[in-house]
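Design job #97: recover the sequence.
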């Protein structure tokens, strides 16, 4: 399903297509391929411990937007 909205890394005001409410999206951060790449890079450069770091930093992950009213998935922002 293609979302009509462009999402950024921050909560976005949208009209939820599922419940029709005007809401500020709830964001869930998920590790994506970029997160894994950064982790591998950190592992090579600094050692094992730092390869866990990207998984703790939200800006290294993609942001999935959900409706806070009904919980519908609305779209994903990935850098
Ligand atoms: Zn909704």
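Job complete. Output follows.
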């Amino acid at each position: 399903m293609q979302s009509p909205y462009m999402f950024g890394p921050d909560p976005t005001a949208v009209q939820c297509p599922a419940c029709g409410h005007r809401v500020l999206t709830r964001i869930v951060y998920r590790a994506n391929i970029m997160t894994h790449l950064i982790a591998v890079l950190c592992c090579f450069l600094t050692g094992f411990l730092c390869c866990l770091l990207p998984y703790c930093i939200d800006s290294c992950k993609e942001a999935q937007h959900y409706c806070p009213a009904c919980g519908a998935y609305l779209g994903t922002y990935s850098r």
